[in-house]
Amino acid sequence: MQKFCESFLINNGFVLRGVIVYGRNNIPIKDVKAFVEYDKEYPIFRIDLKKVLDKVSCNRWVAKCSVRRRLPDTIVIKVVERVPIAIWQYQYKHYLVDKDGRIFDIDGLTDKYGHLLHVVGKSANFYVYQLIQDMENNPTLLHEVKYAVIQGKRRWDLFIGDILVKMPEKRFDNAWRYLGQLYSEGVLNDKSIRVIDMRDENKFYVEKFNNVTLS
């Protein structure tokens, strides 16, 4: 009886003929093709949806997903992809990073995401989301940051134009606010400035190419 029912369904077109994926932007095509490891014309009711769901969920790009049959002959996969927020450089390699610190291969995506903040250093991928949040209240200045280097999981060095800005371990917001003031006053356009050291919240040092001044 079971074979008769299956034959009846197959003869009436209840077989796999297509896979549709909604929400895919960055998931490689080769990964998509591997989501459903069943040949065409395979009985659609014999496809293990949980197995497909587990395979999709394991993809690094996937934050959420669902899988269903669309009768008579299609498997529909819906995905919500993770969103890159920065480019992380570590041990001479580059990766895309999301807000949770997950990393993705940047191959083929450099042009698309090259505008993102670049961060450098061990574990920087886990701290960059907080860094961006701390700087978002001044998006104009944020876009001037070429890259940021984490120092011992405690603080950041920012490179703004040709100037190295040493940010403090604590009260980042105060230093960032003051840095914004310097930016609006045009101080950061001074080509003679090499380093602005803001690690001491009570004063900061400006190191020029020929001398050091205390402010």
Automatic annotation (TrEMBL):
POTRA domain location, by residue?
Answer: 14-82
Cell division: is it a keyword of this entry? Answer: yes
Instruction: Kindly indicate whether the keyword Cell inner membrane belongs to this entry.
Output: yes
**Location within or outside the cell:** Membrane
Task: Give an example GO cellular component term for this record.
Answer: membrane
Mainly localized where?
membrane
Q: Name one Pfam family in it.
A: POTRA_1
UniProt cross-references to PANTHER family, sorted A to Z: CELL DIVISION PROTEIN FTSQ
Q: What is this protein called?
A: FtsQ-type POTRA domain-containing protein
